[in-house]
Amino acid sequence: FDIRKHLLDYDDVMNRQRKVIYEQRKKVLRGEDLWTDINEMVEEIVDDLLSEFMNEKENKEEWNLKGFEDALFKQFNIKFDLVNFGQNNSAPLSVREFIIEGVQKLLHNKENEFGKELMDYLMKVIMLQAIDTQWKEHLLAMDHLREGIGLRGYAQKDPVREYQREGYEMFMEMIARIKMDVLEKLCLIRIQREEEVEEIRQKQKQDYVMSRGEDVPQPKTVKHEGAKTGRNDPCPCGSGKKYKKCCGA
Predict the structure, then answer these.
(1) Which residue, 186, 188, 191, 192, has most beta carbons within 10 Å?
(2) CA–CA separation, 22 vs 50, rounded Å?
(3) With bands split at pLDDT 50, 70 and 90, how would you rate the model's confidence at 170?
(4) Is the pTM of this model over 0.85?
């Protein structure tokens, strides 16, 4: 008989996740701190890969530098020679700085090639596409989780707590996929013809016209049907007061 309460708890989890995603999306639409976000993504992904392939708790002989190089190439489309670099700079911190500087150099070279305005637009479009695609997939996954979570009650587990825990883990995995997707596309993007630049700029102008005010919904005029309430008539809100002393004040 507590299904109603559980539904509210489930909705609360989704509402909090939705708020985070929508706020991030609005921030991207406004073009706020795009480079700051990109640089943070680079550092986080490099740190994750570093802990996987060059874990400080392991012996250096156990480090998989070749696998690390392959993973970096897949993510950033850059060939790092970590085997030779590591002979003189074996500390993970030095390797970290070497990789981050390499990725940032690649991205800033693209900005110099495309121009700041076009690069900002490309970052914005790629980030929005990644957010929208991953969020839709996450919503489907959360629906499947919600459908099957009730069975946990038979295993002496609180379904709501299980939903909150697994929902959080799935949300963080989605955030990680967004970051990886954004950087993979940014590092791969190429513009070979001058006509492509002009096409993108025209698309940018169209998108600007269509998206203006998207994150600040405009109020709609509501047309009320029926007889108009007189100032001395009872207020339709049901307060018992005259309209002029209540909602019509």
Answers:
(1) 186
(2) 31
(3) very high
(4) no
